[in-house]
Specification:
EC 2.6.1.-, 377 residues, transferase, aminotransferase, AspAT/PAT-like, 41% helix, binds 4'-deoxy-4'-aminopyridoxal-5'-phosphate, globular, 7-stranded mixed sheet, PyrdxlP-dep_Trfase_major
């Protein structure tokens, strides 16, 4: 069969390649995964089971169940986000689907889209599948991986149609402070960019509150916010996320969604509804655990003399490994049976770093850190 050029030009995921190496070995401790080690809250799981018992196995409205959209509208108020459940919220199969819809809805062939790097691995392929081209905007440890006006200008982002940002960030764990966020907003306004803001880790912010770029002056009308249930509610396998955007943009994404997905998984929508109704305490508990582990892992890296800026969100730290990160990760796996992800997988600015996920139990984390220390020594 002829494979489309658009697909052939996108290389396979570098993370996958690394996991395949890890899978060949037994007894590996993996700090490589990008998902919570917790299960979804019990109440959410029960609601999913109940819905199945009641025979709720049909499609829902294209945009998602209305009561879920109303609950999402309430939920995002905690970040000052104010969206109409009927016109401005689209429930999707994970934030992943929302990202893909946005690329296809807002990018024409030949358009350029600016992307901060290092960042989550799906955006650049999403741009390319839509026929667009990425403009990579480096962020560095000097600014704690925060985007700046100058970095955007120097990378040529002024020419782009859209800008993708992700804070709290995967893979660095970086958050963005208000001053830097204002710079990014100013740049977007000055150059009339649509901003695609992936805020899936908003609920996992450990130092201060998350601020959404959509709440800054002049930004709501040019921003699409992505969020979902995978991280905050440990529901990765249920595949449920959502997009928040002004009516016209929501309609455009729904135009694609109604043909390609019809509706997000129904069972997962029932689980999400209950998660929003009764699982706040579970989120607080998971966040507290993650924060404890975050501080532990950071202190261990510093004790072994590896530079590591203080990641304040998500569940990753991004230490410098001083040299070839792929070689470091392969040797660490080979000699100590610990899997981490080489930073260069996440774009140029990631080279010389490792993405270390602390979404593992404390006992496992301790053992892994002991082994990394032995390796470094
Ligand atoms: N965005 C980021 C930044 C992520 O890290 C992930 C999951 N690794 C996703 C989106 C995808 O989330 P979902 O499970 O909701 O599709």
């Amino acid at each position: 069969m002829k494979i489309a050029d658009r697909v052939q030009q996108v290389p396979p995921s570098g993370i996958r390649r690394f996991f395949e190496l890890a899978e060949e070995k037994e007894e590996v401790i993996s700090l490589g995964v990008g998902e919570p080690d917790f299960s979804a809250p019990w109440a959410a799981r029960t609601a999913a089971i109940d819905s199945l018992e009641r025979g709720k196995t049909s499609y829902t409205a294209n945009k998602g169940m209305r009561n879920l959209r109303v609950s999402i509208a309430d939920y995002v108020q905690q970040w000052g986000l104010d969206y109409d459940p009927d016109e401005e919220i689209l429930v999707t199969a994970g934030a992943s689907e929302a990202v893909d819809l946005a690329m296809r809805a807002f990018v024409d062939p030949g358009d350029t889209v600016a992307v901060q790097e290092p960042t989550y691995i799906s955006y650049v392929p999403g741009i390319q599948f839509a026929g667009g081209e990425p403009i990579r905007v480096p962020t560095t440890p000097e600014t704690e991986f925060q985007l700046t006006y100058d970095a955007l200008r120097d990378a040529g982002a002024a020419e782009a149609e859209a800008l993708v940002i992700c804070y709290p960030n995967n893979p660095t764990g970086a958050t963005i402070d208000d001053a830097h966020l204002r710079e990014v907003a100013e740049f977007a306004r000055d150059h009339d960019l649509t901003v695609l803001s992936d805020e899936i880790y908003a609920a996992l912010t450990y130092d201060g509150d998350h601020t959404s770029i959509a709440t800054l002056p002049g930004m709501r009308e040019r921003t699409v916010v992505f969020n979902g249930f995978s991280k905050a509610y440990a529901m990765t396998g249920l595949r449920l996320g959502f997009a928040l955007a002004p009516p016209e943009a929501t309609q455009a994404m729904n135009r694609i969604h109604q043909y390609t997905m019809l509706s997000a998984p129904t069972t997962a929508q029932y689980a999400a509804l209950e998660a929003l109704r009764s699982c706040d305490d579970d989120v607080v508990e998971m966040r507290t655990q993650f924060d404890r582990r975050r501080r532990y892992v950071l202190s261990r890296f510093r004790e072994m003399g590896m530079d590591c800026f203080e990641a304040k969100g998500a569940f990753y730290v991004f230490p410098e490994c001083g040299g070839d990160d792929e070689q470091f990760a392969e040797d660490l796996l080979e000699s100590q049976d610990v899997a981490v992800v080489p930073g260069s997988v996440f774009g140029d600015g990631g080279a010389g770093h490792l993405r270390v996920s602390y979404a593992s139990g404390m006992a496992e984390l301790k053992e892994a850190m002991n082994r990394i220390e032995a390796f470094v020594e």
